[in-house]
Amino acid sequence: MYDPLNALRLPGRLDGKCIAALLGFAEHDLPVLTRAGLIRPLADPEPNAPKWYCRDEILAKAADPAWLARATRAVSQNWRRRNARRSTNALAQYSTPNRTGKSCKIA
Question: Mean pLDDT of all residues in the chain?
């Protein structure tokens, strides 16, 4: 694969790795941006199919500070929710009720 940041001319359709590099996000953040409606793959790909994106739309979004702020906020909120859910599950795992109904820590 080529490096999209050093290419003289980008192809018309870009894969996830390329747009992640162009937008400055990690590749695993792209599904979050797609669910938030901030990026849209070409056509209507199946959930497990590779996603391709329009070069011109991605370059326009990369140059828009307001869009970048919304995208950054969407990714941050996603990770905040995931971390909160993980810490809640961890607390529930370490605390179980004993016979008296009070919770005790499992060693």
Answer: 86
In 3D, which of 77, 28, 75, 33 has the Cα closest to residue 58?
33
Tell me which fold the domain 13-105 belongs to: Multidrug-efflux Transporter Regulator; Chain: A; Domain 2 (1.10.1660)
Phi-psi region of 97 (alpha: psi -120 to 50; beta: other; left: phi over 0): beta
Q: What are the beta bridge partners of residue 101?
A: none
pTM, entire model: 0.74
Distance CA 54, CA 60 (A): 10
User: Count of residues for the chain?
Assistant: 107
CB 44 within 8 A of CB 5: no
